[in-house]
Amino acid sequence: MRLDKNMMQDAIDSRLSGLSASPARRARIWAAVRAEKKPVRISKLTRTLLAACLAVLVLGGTALAASTNLFDYFSRQEQTSSVEARYGAVAEQAAVENAVTVSVETEELGQAEAWIDSAYYDGYSLVVGFIIQNSERVEVFIPTEEQLAQMTVSDSAIIEAIMPGDTVSEAYEQYLEAVQAGMPFGYVSYSVSASDHTLINDSIDPVPYTGVSSSADGLYYELREFSLTEESQELDTIELSIRLYESVTYVYYDGEVWYLSSERAEAETMTATVSRTEVQPAYYTGTGDIDGVSCVATAQVLPMYTTVTVTAGEAVFQEDWTLAVYDENGTALTSMEAASLDGDALTLTLLSTGDTPQSLTVYAFSTAEDYPLEEDIQALACLTLTPAN
Amino acid sequence: MSERDQWLETAMARYETSLLRMCFTYLGDVQLAEDAVQDTFLKAYQRFSSYRGESSEKTWLMSIAINTCKDVLRSAWFRRVDRGQALDGLPEPAVPFQEPDDTLVRAVMALERRQREVILLRYYQDMSAQEIAAALGISVRAVYSRQKKALDTLQQHLAKQEEEYAFG
User: What percent of chain A clears pLDDT 70, i.e. is strictly above it?
Assistant: First the structure.
């Protein structure tokens, strides 16, 4: 008998047939998706900040006050993660020019306004922030027979995943109460939202890397961060554009079954210009031994990212090796991808902390069996990197 | 429903079961496998707009799944999990399994992690060596090397069984 894929698949599927698809698991996945869509921190923008945001109807290059753009806003929220902490460091440079406030007029929403609030571009990173005002409204919806016939049957998991951004509306709360009581009820959500794509110079569609968003009182605001390909690394200025969509989503629960109908149409496009911020990377170097082998380490620290490379004098690193990096305060830098090995050089890109470190401590280790505990990592030999002359 | 939502619904229908069974075989724990599957679909959903079709959808999704499982392995308490006991504690199978199936699955779960990855992607997910290399971020040569070591290990494991397996 030959070991082939059929044998392996049959063996695993037979032995593990007790592990199968389940509606409950899908519901949890949709709930997780919904949780990601919901604001992590729902905060009310103060009237002052709102006024400042509205004041960014920049038609001639008026600069924003440093504390009133989305970079500064997100960096100052509670439970700021590694992602947001860096934004404060570049908030002052994150200004845009020629930002056009666009209006989307709908019968149901009235006038929604949107604009690109701020952006940071240094050739290594691009982060874009935008705001949509009057982005959504939720109303009660009880369909006629004819309307119900036009809707498609859905399930609770999908319905939960598409819940409105503004969940404190009276209509939505009534809907939730009705569902809990097993009573028929429905809602309609009218919204203006941004495309997932942000264009550079109308032709480059960069890949999103990470970002943050939040919504409250009909205001939606988001920061998007992109990894840049070669074609977008050497530009002096960038023309940004983000398409808007107007959508209508109908949800109806008849006491047992959910019904869904949605429509979406392209609307206006937000545009702005961001100029390149010249940054000078900070360089660090250090030497040390790893597993008895002499190594040299270098680091390039930028506002958004820190790249560390450890080069061994002879073969010691394997493909499953990685690095752990700490600043002088013992703060671990967060990595968002695996380390890469090129010959005897091991390289890892991490999120910067928002502060320029005085020194970096680097550990290198294998993860072939398990990822070591923090104390086990710090018991290893390390390299200390200090600013290069 | 947005394009992304439609994609997720389709992807779960297509990959949920095989992902769950692969993650369990990789991690040796039902709850960890459940978490890994949930995180995999969530990450894929978040990154949907960045998927440009450079690789097949399956390769892309399996890459996310394997890296998610690797993240789980970094958890300290996981080291105390006994994969063999985890297999015994599974929900009752829909159809009684045969002893050779149990032996083969236990042998795969006992493989060193890097070999286990390749065997699962090659023999369970039916991915090519090129697709596995792309998913794991390693060379095709490394894929073949790990596959050979894994098959040698499996052969030693299964040598005691009544039926003989010839390995290709």
Answer: 85
Q: H or E element: which one contains A119?
A: strand A110-121
Q: Sign (positive/negative) of CA torsion A69, A72, A76, A82?
A: positive
The residue in chain B having the minimum alpha-carbon distance to the alpha carbon of residue A259 is B1
Residue A154 to residue A146: CA distance in whole angstroms: 18
From chain A, the residues in CB contact with B92 under 8 A are 18
Chain A residue numbers with beta carbons less than 8 Å from the beta carbon of B46 are: 36
Q: Which residues of A touch B84 (CB under 8 A)?
A: none
Tell me which amino acid residue A103 is.
S
pLDDT surpasses 70 at B29: yes
Q: Of the candidates B8, B17, B100, which has its C-beta nearest A20's C-beta?
A: B17
Asked if A33 reaches chain B (Cβ–Cβ under 8 Å), the answer is yes
Q: Is A371 exposed, middle or buried (CB count within 10 Å of its CB: 0-12, 13-18, 19+)?
A: buried
Mean pLDDT of chain A: 82
Can you state the angle between helices B99-109 and A5-15, rounded to 10 degrees?
100
* CA A384 – CA A325 distance, rounded (Å): 10
Ordered DSSP codes for B42-101: HHHHHTGGG--SSS-HHHHHHHHHHHHHHHHHT-GGGGG--HHHHHHTSPPPSSPPPHHH
* Residues A348-359 pLDDT 10s: 988 888 888 999
- DSSP 8-state secondary structure symbol assigned to residue B121: I
Residue B30 token pair: 């039902």
- Spatial separation of the C-alpha atoms in residues A262 and A246, rounded to whole Å: 11
Please write the tens of the pLDDT for every residue from A53-84: 333 332 222 223 333 689 988 887 655 566 77
For the CA atoms of A89, A92, A94, A98, the dihedral, rounded to the nearest 10 degrees, stands at: 180
A262: tokens are 């949605």
Q: How far apart are CA A205 and CA A232, in angstroms?
A: 10
CA distance A257 to A143: 14
With cut-offs at 50, 70 and 90, classify the pLDDT of residue A37.
Answer: low
- H-type alpha helices, chain A: 5-15, 23-37, 47-54, 70-75, 82-85, 145-149, 156-161, 170-181, 374-377
The model's pTM:
0.56
Q: How many CA atoms lie within 13 A of B19 on its CB side?
A: 31
